[in-house]
Write a structure and sequence with these properties.
The chain is α+β, with helices and mostly antiparallel strands. It has helices at about 1-10, 20-30, 85-90, 130-135, 160-175, 200-205, 250-265, 280, 310-325; strands at about 35-40, 45-50, 55-60, 65-70, 75-80, 95, 100-105, 120-125, 145, 150-155, 155-160, 185-190, 210-220, 240-245, 245, 270, 290-300, 305-310. It has nine helices and 18 strands.
Length: about 325
């Protein structure tokens, strides 16, 4: 699992520019499903055909990043955010553009108070002295992801883009280890989740599933003076109850609970007070879809040092497989 996580997290795939990560995922699942297609928006849809219920499984491929918006005469690059980029998490970080150009992200030194820091007061230094030199490396509209190595320390994984490459890894591993089932399963690796759940909405409208399960990360309440929350790293995958985009369907919640009990894995409940995820778009598509989610506890979300527990990820795979096999309507 670690090798897969490393491959996925270190592949570029900023929202709206998911081509590279989509190709990597396609190679990982090739030959394991009956059909692989890419829809108009860019979602990767892998189908395992069957005569039973139609189930949609979603994990988003995209990650947060930045886009170049202006280059000054000295070659410093101004930028805007793609997704939920936090200005304080970004200070002193490296970013990598799609062509491999690396830049250092920092803020204007004349800023009177760091509390007033905004992304508009920050810039990317790509190590050149003029606008002409900069334009040879970076063009207006080019996107960059944050740089953060994927490392394993004990049972903990630290990396950029665990949101949601860890969910993609869970779905890939489930595909590769899925026993025969009568259900028809649509494994969807969605695009542009970080920009408003866009890919999941169009995919669900096209598929019209009987039930949907998403796999994504969630926040935790287990770090010093953190926001109070029951979810903790290492205590098992979380069954989503609600976030700001959805109150999960009782049928899906019960399916996940019963599946976790049946295979005897630890699990938690997620009540997320901020943010949303793919089920928020899926459940109100195509006349309505009973939807829920398996959530991977993750510290420092939307930073280059997102931190998750390997056993939580591995147990999420087991929970997903059991739930897909158990659902009968």
């Amino acid at each position: 699992m670690f090798d897969l996580l490393k491959k996925l997290t270190q592949t570029t795939g900023v929202s709206g520019n998911e081509e590279e990560i989509r190709n990597v995922i396609k190679e990982e699942i090739k030959g394991k499903v009956d059909q692989i297609t890419v829809d108009t928006l860019g979602n990767l849809i892998a189908v395992k055909k069957g005569n039973g219920k139609k189930i949609m499984v979603a994990a988003h491929m995209d990650e947060i990043g930045v886009m170049a918006t202006f280059i000054d005469d000295n070659g410093f690059v101004r930028f805007s955010s793609i997704g939920g980029v936090n200005q304080y998490n970004s200070i002193g970080q490296k970013v990598r553009f799609n062509n491999g150009t690396i830049g250092a992200l920092h803020y204007e030194q004349k800023l009177d108070d760091l509390k007033n820091l905004k992304l508009s007061k920050m810039y990317i230094d790509i190590g050149v002295d003029s606008k002409e030199e900069a334009l040879k490396l970076v063009g207006i509209g080019d996107v960059a992801c944050f740089v953060g190595d994927c490392v394993k320390q004990g049972n903990i994984i630290i990396s950029k883009a665990l949101d949601d490459r860890s969910g993609c890894a869970v779905v890939i591993d489930a595909i590769n280890n899925m026993p025969k089932t009568e259900n028809e399963i649509y494994y969807v690796f969605t695009v542009q989740e970080e920009l408003g759940l866009r890919g999941a909405k169009t995919a669900a409208y096209q598929i019209k599933p009987d039930l949907a399960i998403a796999v994504d990360v969630t926040l935790t309440g287990d770090t010093p003076n953190s926001h109070l929350m029951e979810v903790k790293c290492g205590k098992g995958p979380a069954i989503k109850i609600k976030d700001r985009s959805i109150i999960c369907h009782p049928k899906v919640k019960k399916l996940l609970e019963n599946s976790a009990k049946k295979i005897n894995i630890p699990y938690q409940y997620e009540v997320l007070e901020a943010g949303g995820s793919d089920p928020g778009a899926i459940h109100i598509s195509a006349g309505g879809v009973p939807s829920g989610a398996i959530s991977i506890p993750c510290r420092y979300v939307h930073s280059p040092v997102e931190t998750a527990c390997l056993t939580d990820i591995e147990n999420a795979v087991k929970l997903l497989i059991e739930s897909l096999c158990s659902f009968s309507g």
